[in-house]
Amino acid sequence: MIDFDQHLDSPEPRTPAERLWTVTKDGARRYAELRSNRDFGIEFQLFASESRFLYGQRFPTKAEAMLQSCQERDRRLRDGWTLMETADGSSEHRDS
Question: Which of 18, 17, 16, 32 has the alpha carbon at shortest distance from 83?
Fold first, then answer.
């Protein structure tokens, strides 16, 4: 198991994020990203409008991080959010 605390002062720069999806509801916006780090694994991150970090969770594999992303997106869609953008850049509209 990886000890994440021992790497907090790691000089390695952050990797570019991979935007997965964006949802909106009542003027609020949320978007999800993945970040990769060879020492830490893959981190799923959720942001509010204007890059305000909400939470993140690390996973050993991209598949596990993507599963978390899909679960979070689907939960928000069930709660009435609208999917605006997906990882491939396509836009999609879903009714509440």
Answer: 32
